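Bug report (template v2)

What were you trying to do?
Predict the complex of my protein with GCB.

What happened?
Run completed; filing so the output is reviewed.

Input:
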Amino acid sequence: MNYLAEVWLNGEPLGTHEGGHLPFEFDVSGKLRREGNLLVVRVDGELAPDRVPPGGASPNLPEITWDQQYPPASFDFFPFAGIHRPVMLYSTPSEAIADLTVRTTVNGAEGRVWVKLDTTAGTSGTARFLLQGHGGDVRAEAPVSGAGVETELRVPGAALWGPGAPNLYRLTVELVRSGEVTDRYSLPVGIRTVEVRGDALLLNGKPIYLKGFGRHEDFPVVGRGLAPAVVVKDYALMQWVGANSFRTTHYPYSEQMMDLADRLGFLVIDETPAVGLFFAEPGLERRLNLCRQYTREIVARDKNRPSVIMWSVANEPRSKRAPAKPSFRALYDLAKSLDQTRPVTLVSDLWVEEESFEFLDVVCVNRYMGWYRNPGQLPAGVATLSNDLDQLHAKFGKPVIVSEFGADAVAGHHAQPPEMFSEEYQAETIKRHHDLFHTKPYMVGEHVWNLCDFKTGQGTRRVGALNLKGVFTRDRRPKMAAHLLKELWRER
Ligand code: GCB
């Protein structure tokens, strides 16, 4: 639901939930009629400065309006409002599995799967754990006490999960009482480790380089509404060009998208909806509370996914005001307290001035050389970028990902020599950036902005109210840059 949902059952309020893109639920036990139930959801999509992401027209707050677009918002994508994903009614027994947390480690050839089971209050009996797949079942059993149960399953000769080999096991957990199974839940498990060591990002102990995109949940007619065929198509396109990763710019993607990342072996930087955050009043504390809520919700939803290798707590915050650094420190600490197994980052366009990189695990930066900077002058832009990247690494001493770069291209518009808005210029921009990045040993990833053209607000820089930085059009046809990426990424 985007942005704020109020829910009623048979005229009785069930509750509200603020923020889009993350699931929420209400308990309707004892409230359902035998037949003729009416569930009503009212969605409020108003843009306001104390919401996250922020928006709304406010002459005193230049920080929130992006490039004077209409509708006014602190971000560059269309603020689609409504019910974008499925609403489900489901039932559980009174003694039920409430949550599962899975963590995996690797010790030589042995994979270890640590599982924590939380049950509803008052549950008793036995918990059974079964891990299946890749030539051997592993089982464990433990008595259920009020506080939950932990176990570790050891998998000799484990088939590890990773791009190119997305090996999944199936974990089934059962609650058993007096010989009867009272509840059962299954989920896919990928055994893998993620670690930042020095300048490297390690997957299963080996350095990994991210090749991929920022993207949007956006398609003609359906807007941000879940369109499973588009999800499948986007993976097919990413595989065709040889991408191994993406960032969920600038909000958590659908569970269907995430399920396929696990199954197809994509590495995901999982980003909260905190885009365009600013640190002036009014509404600062309210916005920060929402960021904390989103961090808790995204970790709760995606913590068991092998594809998620990093959390991103924000995109391009206006970090120059004093509250920014302590606020991000608090969000970093919160993410780490919820999940010690994954690096935490934020994505910045402030580079060396983004002080929070001092404590974040990976440095993610966006920059548009040859476009917003040095327009039309790619060689000069890329030379400056080379220097800026070295300064960034010298200051923070951490692995660097350029999480956005690129250029708008009108499909079918050509120019030789390459000029801005031509397909040639976009392809040339990507080629020069890619070549530069591969001279920098501390770089661990390049994400082109964007996979596809997408709808945004109206403004002088957005012809047709579209951002045209896609290497595919909005209806998923390749531009020259997509063919180029296929050459660049498939060879390494
Ligand atoms: C950025 C933003 C992204 C915009 C992009 C652009 O830095 O993170 O949301 O769409 O620039 O094309 O201007």
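What did the reviewer find?
The domain at 97-189 is CATH 2.60.40.10 (Immunoglobulin-like). The longest strand covers residues 97-107.
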